[in-house]
Specification:
By secondary structure, the chain is α/β, with parallel strands linked by helices. It has 14 helices and 14 strands. The protein has an eight-stranded parallel β-sheet with strand order 2-1-3-8-7-4-5-6, sandwiched between helices. A two-stranded parallel ribbon has the order 9-10.
Length: 472
C-alpha cells in the first residue's frame, strides 16, 4: 500500500504579481505561497513530506479543458508591456496578467498533474500542491476571479484519460463558488462536484443564479453538482462539520470515488477579508481526515484562495499535518450549526434526495434516532453508516469526549473493514484517543484491525482487541 505525503511547490509561481493599482485584485499576492511555505518549514513539516518537483503543464493538457483560442490569448501576454497587459486583463472579471503569468499558470497545472501522478502511481498516498494562480473560477474561454487555467478540472480530465477513472469527487471548500468547475462538469456523471460558498441570496460574488442549492447539474449530470450556499457571514466550525455530516459525506460514500481532489481555498477560514467566516484552522484538519477515508486514501489537495496570511498558512499546516497522519486537534466551543446553515443544508438535501438514497433519511433528530435504533439492530453496511454520519458523529462532536470507546460484539455484519472505517471516522473527537474492544468468534480466519496506523491481529477463537491512539 502506498504511503507518504507529497508536497509540491515552485518558487517561480511567486513571480506572478499585479503591476498596477487595482483594489479588486491587490489581495492576490505572491506572499500567499512564500509565507505558507515558510510556515510549513517552521513546523518541521517540509522534511516529513515527499518532495515532488513541479513541471509545466503541456498545451495538450491545458486543452483538455480550455479552448485553443483562449490558450493563444494567454500565450500572447508573455511579450506584452504593462499597458497592453492592463488592457487584456480588463477583458476578464477580476484578473490581472504579468509577463510571467502564463509560465506560472502552466507550472500550476503541471504541479497539480504531478500530484495526481504521484498518488495514482502509488509513489505517495496523498499530497498537497501549493500553486498560483488558482483555478476554480476559470472557464473554457475566460479567465475569472484570479484564475487563468482550471487546475483541478484539468486534473480530473487528465486522471480519467490516463488512469481510466470513472468516479472522481471534487470538493471545493473555497469561500467562493467555483463556477468554472461547475460549468465544465455539470453534464458529467463521472465527476461529483461539491461546493460550499458565501452566497447571501446571490448578493456575493460571483452572484450567479446557478450557484444556489437547486443547481443540481444538467442532463446525465443531474445530482452530481452540489451547491451549498451560505446566506450569511460568520459560519464556523459547527456549520462546516454539519455540511460534511449531512450532505457531503453521505453522498460521497454512496458515490464511492476512485480519487478525491480538493479545491482548497482557505478564504473560508477565520480572519479572511473575502469570506468573513469564523472557521478555525483546526477544522480543516477534521475535513481532511474525513476525506482521507474515501478512495482508499487517494487524496489530492490543490490550493485555491486564502488572503489572510496567518489564517491561510496555519490552515495549510493543519491540512498537511493531517495528511501525514498526525492526530487531529480537538475542536471546542459551540457545536450546534446556526439556523441559516441548517436551512441551507435542508434545502440541499431536499434538492438532491431524488438522486442519492443516503439523503432519504429525515433531517430532524427524533426521526434520525428512531431510524438509528432500527439500523443498529440490523447493522447493515450502508444503512448503518448513514446513521453514523447522521447521528453518531454530530452527537460525538457536540459532546466533546476525552476518550472514545467502541465495543463490537461477535454478531455483526459490518466486517473488520467496516469497523476500521467507523474508528477512522471517530478519530476527530477526543484527539484520536480511541479504545476499541472487538469480540471475535472465528477459528478459521485471521482477523486484522487497524486504527490510525496501529495494526492488531488475532487468530484466537474468542478475543478482545484494544488500541489506544494518541493517549499520553
Amino acid at each position: 500500500m502506498a504511503s507518504g505525503t507529497a508536497l509540491i511547490y515552485d518558487e517561480e509561481m511567486t513571480t506572478h504579481r499585479l503591476l498596477w493599482s487595482d483594489p479588486v485584485c491587490d489581495i492576490e499576492v505572491p506572499e500567499r505561497l512564500s509565507f505558507s511555505y515558510e510556515q510549513l518549514k517552521c513546523y518541521h513539516l517540509l522534511e516529513r513530506c515527499v518532495h515532488v518537483p513541479a513541471r509545466e503543464g503541456s498545451e495538450e493538457e491545458i486543452l483538455l479543458v480550455h479552448s485553443s483560442e483562449y490558450l493563444e490569448v494567454a500565450k500572447s501576454t508573455q511579450t506584452m508591456n504593462e499597458e497592453e497587459l492592463k488592457k487584456v486583463s480588463g477583458n476578464y472579471d477580476a484578473f490581472f496578467f504579468h509577463p510571467n503569468t502564463y509560465r506560472c499558470a502552466r507550472l500550476a497545472v503541471g504541479a497539480t498533474l504531478q500530484l495526481v501522478d504521484a498518488v495514482m502511481s502509488g509513489k505517495v498516498c496523498n499530497g498537497m500542491a501549493l500553486v498560483r494562480p488558482p483555478g476554480h473560477h476559470s472557464q473554457r474561454n475566460a479567465a475569472n476571479g484570479f484564475c487563468l487555467f482550471n487546475n483541478v478540472a484539468i486534473a480530473a480530465e487528465y486522471a480519467k484519460l490516463k488512469y481510466g477513472l470513472q468516479r472522481i469527487l471534487i470538493v471545493d471548500w473555497d469561500v467562493h463558488h467555483g463556477q468554472g468547475t461547475q460549468y465544465i462538469f455539470e453534464e458529467d456523471p463521472s465527476v461529483l462536484y461539491f461546493s460550499w460558498h458565501r452566497y447571501e441570496h446571490q448578493e456575493f460574488w460571483p452572484s450567479l443564479r446557478e450557484s444556489d442549492y437547486d443547481a443540481v447539474g444538467l442532463g446525465k449530470g443531474k445530482g452530481f453538482n452540489i451547491n451549498l450556499p451560505w446566506n450569511k457571514v460568520g459560519m464556523g466550525n459547527s456549520d462546516y462539520l454539519a455540511a460534511f455530516f449531512h450532505v457531503l459525506l453521505p453522498v460521497a460514500f454512496e458515490f464511492d470515488p476512485e480519487m478525491v481532489i480538493v479545491s482548497s481555498g482557505y478564504d473560508s477560514g477565520i480572519g479572511d477579508p473575502e469570506g468573513q467566516m469564523n472557521a478555525t484552522p483546526e477544522v480543516f484538519a477534521h475535513l481532511t481526515r474525513f476525506l482521507m477515508q474515501l478512495a482508499n486514501g487517494k487524496l489530492c489537495i490543490i490550493l485555491e484562495g486564502g488572503y489572510h496570511l496567518k489564517s491561510l498558512s496555519e490552515s495549510i499546516c493543519m491540512t498537511v499535518k493531517t495528511l501525514l497522519g498526525d492526530p487531529v486537534p480537538q475542536i471546542t466551543g459551540e457545536m450546534a450549526p446556526c439556523l441559516s446553515a441548517v436551512e441551507s443544508i435542508q434545502n440541499v438535501r431536499a434538492a438532491h434526495k431524488p438522486y442519492w438514497k443516503w439523503l432519504t433519511y429525515e433531517g430532524n433528530c427524533f426521526s434520525f434516532l428512531k431510524q438509528i435504533f432500527l439500523l443498529l439492530k440490523d447493522a447493515k453496511g450502508n444503512d448503518f453508516f448513514s446513521a453514523v454520519l447522521g447521528v453518531i458523529l454530530p452527537v460525538a462532536y457536540s459532546y466533546q469526549p476525552n476518550l472514545t470507546v467502541i465495543a463490537v460484539g461477535p454478531n455483526r455484519s459490518l466486517g473488520i473493514s467496516g469497523i476500521s472505517l467507523l474508528c477512522a471516522l471517530l478519530q476527530g473527537v477526543a484527539e484520536s484517543r480511541i479504545f476499541a474492544v472487538i469480540e471475535v468468534r472465528s477459528s478459521a480466519k485471521l482477523w486484522y484491525f487497524k486504527v490510525s496506523g496501529t495494526e492488531l491481529k488475532s487468530n484466537s477463537s474468542t478475543c478482545s482487541m484494544n488500541c489506544f491512539q494518541g493517549a499520553q
